Amino acid sequence: MRHSPLRCALIQQRFHGDKESTRTHTRAAIDEAARNGAQLVILQELHQSEYFCQHEDTRYFDYAESFDDDCAYWSAAAREAGVVLVSSLFEKRAPGLYHNTAVVFDSDGSIAGKYRKMHIPDDPGFYEKFYFTPGDLGFVPIDTSVGRLGVLVCWDQWYPEAARIMALRGAQMLIYPTAIGWFDEDSEEEKARQLESWVTIQRAHAVANGIPVLSCNRVGFEPDPSGTLKGIRFWGHSFVCGPQGEFIDRAGSEEETILYAEIDRRRTREVRDIWPFLRDRRIENYEDLLKRYCD
């Protein structure tokens, strides 16, 4: 494991009306991040398009037809900027079989690996089970030129099992491309509870596993095309925290931004040494975790 600081950039942005405009905006941000010394760049969930899962419509499956071309586009972006790039794409595997897939490109443009989202929500405004088949690649970290990345996606954030398995397999950090937001009709108190829950669970993953967490969320209001709901106001608040859950940097709730953070990899090792949670796990007593519920 390298001990030099790792400069990361999280690109928090809104949807710019169409794929071409949005990709142009993202590509410019990647290049800017590289000019500012970023070695690892993280994009938000489904960053090429609107968050189309607010309602169920088969026409959105057409978005996944371009998966190979999309991989070529972001491969070139990573190669030309000279960064490791974590993308989030809609993958068509076969007719009727689609995945929400994070593809990681190394700095030479090669595909270092991919992760297919495992936990799929089905809630008002977040009808992802209609679109995405649960991933089958497992919780396996991806080796890159900047380290071993534990890449998960959005709803995976709420599951300590996913974070733990990534850590047990040697992930040196956890990375979450995300699309989560508020409904305007919710009370301010409820919005605050939701946001703090989202932040707290991810910081807890950092503490429990002794590794940094990088969470990149989108911003902006996106209306529900069906008119059933008003739409989602994505709450931003992308952040990076260290291995004790401490904030390294955090974005706001409305602005598009490039959030920079320095990961002190030597300190990660030091925290693991003084807080040896993995050493003290009682693995012989955890068999109930394989049950849906302990009746």
Which helices and strands, and how do they pair?
Blueprint: E1 6-12, H1 19-35, E2 40-43, H2 67-81, E3 84-86, E4 89-94, E5 97-105, E6 111-116, E7 122-123, E8 126-127, E9 142-144, E10 147-151, H3 160-168, E11 173-178, E12 181-182, H4 188-209, E13 213-217, E14 219-223, E15 231-235, E16 239-241, E17 247-250, E18 257-263, H5 265-274
Parallel strand pairs: 1-2, 2-3, 10-11, 11-13
Antiparallel strand pairs: 1-18, 3-5, 4-5, 5-6, 7-8, 9-10, 12-15, 13-16, 14-15, 16-17
Structural class, by secondary structure, is: alpha+beta
Mean pLDDT: 97
Strand-residue fraction? 25-35%
- Number-wise, the strands total 18
Description of the structure:
This protein is of the alpha+beta class. Helices cover 25% and strands 28% of the residues. It has helices at 19-35, 67-81, 160-168, 188-209, 265-274, and strands at 6-12, 40-43, 84-86, 89-94, 97-105, 111-116, 122-123, 126-127, 142-144, 147-151, 173-178, 181-182, 213-217, 219-223, 231-235, 239-241, 247-250, 257-263. α1 runs parallel beside α2 (67-81) and α3 (160-168) runs parallel beside α4 (188-209). The longest helix has 22 residues, at 188-209. The termini are far apart. The relative contact order is 0.16.
Q: Could you give a short description of this structure?
A:
The chain has 295 residues and is of the alpha+beta class. It is built from 5 helices and 18 strands.
